[in-house]
Amino acid sequence: MSRLLITNAQIVNEQHITRGDIWIDKGRIEAVGGDLSGRAADTVIDANGRALLPGLIDDQVHFREPGLTHKGDIGSESRAAVAGGITSFMEMPNTNPTTTDHQALEAKRAIAARTAHANYAFYLGATNTNIEAVKSLDPLKVCGVKVFMGASTGDMLVDDPDTLEKIFAEAPVLVATHCEDTPTIVANEARFRERYGDDVPMHCHPEIRSREACLKSSSLAVDLARRHGTRLHVLHLTTADEMSLFSTAPTNQKSITAEVCAHHLFFSDADYPTRGARIKCNPAIKGESDRQALLRAVIEGRIDIIATDHAPHTREEKQNLYFNSPSGLPLVQDALPSLLEHYHQGVLPLPLIVEKTSHAVARLFAIQERGFIREGYWADLVLVDLERPHTVEPGTAFAKCGWSPFEGHRFQSTVDLTIVNGRIVYQDGRFPEPPRGVALTFERT
Ligand code: DOR
After folding, report:
1. How confident is the model at residue 154 (pLDDT cuts 50, 70, 90)?
2. What CATH code is assigned to 4-52+373-392+409-427?
3. What is 56-364's CATH topology?
4. What is the atom index within ligand 1 of the atom nearest the CA of 62?
5. Alpha helices per DSSP H over 229-318
6. Taking 70 as the threshold, does the pLDDT of residue 278 lie above it?
7. Using an 8 Å Cβ cutoff, are 372 and 358 in contact?
8. Of 83, 181, 194, 353, which one is least surrounded by beta carbons within 10 A?
9. Which of 203, 338, 223 shows the shortest CA–CA distance to 275?
């Protein structure tokens, strides 16, 4: 494995930005900071003042393999991920078959070992009937248990009250929840169907997948976790109302943590008239005041993690009328440039973006030796040009579905280069290495 020297970088790490070099040997960061030009290297990258960040660790993606590979697969979507500076991902269980037993988990790991361009871990999906599989999980191998407390893509709703009690009481790993109250949504769907028939306008999505549905379900999750002392992580929060459920304490002192996704920080309901089904996702993108509240919660520390919820569907599928147009957007490639827009607007400082997309994720999931630019840690890094704008065009998407919800948008920043396990896996639109991602390992007692 080659030795890599990165010179003259603005290193964004652990709340600071410092100028200096980084030397990588055998996949690991061996020296950080200052002038390291004396170190022997096979490849030298002159960062020329560009920002070097720890690679993003995305704790919520849907890569569609097995069974839904016309939308994406682990190889194609992890390739798009490294083009967006994501160096590790945690993948969701609503594939076909669903990842609801140990055999299905092993099958996914085997595929990833052959095809993943980034490092990986997988969630086991809870169902109304698989509590034994949940209880027997190995916390050193599995990132968490995913519980769809609201129905979304796939048939994975867990709504049996006794089963929920058991999962929250007995899961040996972090419980990650999708929170939207399904009975509320079903009632809203009936009302809108009565009014519009099948052709419900897309801007009604946040009224159907409503604020009330979100708050009711996330309040239930928090209540269950408090009663059982569960390690709960609530995924993709979208409303101002839910923010008071979460504390501003440091991530490693909380047993209930929270995630928000890049698109919920970027779009608001004002975007439905132009983007329509291309921003239809669950939970729905809500109002501008919700978006502002989410950004405030990131700054205050109520939100611990920023992820993508990358969930590709084909263009054709998205063209269906409301009820048959699937929810979910491809996001891994554009999430970091979209977050950097908040930096350019003076809303999120760079070290805070790094904290929420990398450090906090590593801490929250107890990931071994990743998520920080530290000597001895794996070299998972992304080099970003903050002053090189690019416009997202149709045809520039690497995800298999071939489109982006950001099409037409001009971002101020561009991902130049991504390093995974000490190798350059993405550089200026090219992928110089075959897939070499490895399984994430966890330090848990
Ligand atoms: O919008 C979404 N799409 N939300 C989810 O929870 C699932 C995802 C998918 O798998 O398509």
Report:
1. confident
2. 2.30.40.10
3. TIM Barrel (3.20.20)
4. 10
5. 262-266, 272-275, 288-300, 315-318
6. yes
7. yes
8. 194
9. 203
Q: Which residue has the tokens 């089904």?
A: 277
Torsion sign (Cα): 132, 135, 137, 138: negative
Choose one of 152, 208, 260, 313 to mutate for the ligand 1 pocket test, by most ligand atoms within 8 angstroms of C-beta: 152
pLDDT of residue 445: 77
Ligand 1 pocket, CB under 6 A: 62, 94, 152-153, 178, 281-282, 311, 326-328
Residue to substitute in 158, 260, 309 for testing ligand 1 pocket (most ligand atoms within 8 angstroms of CB):
309
pLDDT in tens, 307-342: 999 999 999 999 999 999 999 999 999 999 999 999
User: What pLDDT is attached to residue 155?
Assistant: 87
For residue 232, what pLDDT band results from cuts at 50, 70 and 90? very high
Q: Taking 90 as the threshold, does the pLDDT of residue 2 lie above it?
A: no
Distances (CA, A) of 191 to 7, 9, 135, 188: 60, 56, 40, 5
pLDDT band at 49 (very low <50, low <70, confident <90, very high): confident
Element spanning 17, H or E: strand 16-25
pLDDT > 90: percent of the chain: 97
- What is the C-alpha separation between 123 and 77, in angstroms, rounded? 17
Length of the chain: 445
Residue spans of the domains in the chain: they are 4-52+373-392+409-427, 56-364
Q: Which residues of 241-250 are buried (b: 16+ CB within 10 A; e: fewer)?
A: bbbebbbeee
407 Cβ partners below 8 Å, 6+ apart? 278, 392, 393, 394
Q: How far is the CA of 152 from the centre of ligand 1 (A)?
A: 6
Q: What is the pLDDT of residue 1?
A: 58
Rounded distance, CA 394 to CA 404, Å? 8
- The whole-angstrom separation of Cα 349 and Cα 177 is 28
Beta pairing class for 381-385 and 414-420:
antiparallel
Q: What is the pLDDT averaged over residues 81-94?
A: 98
Our CA dihedral for 358, 361, 365, 368, rounded to 10 degrees, sits at 10
The encoded tokens of residue 422 equal 């000490």
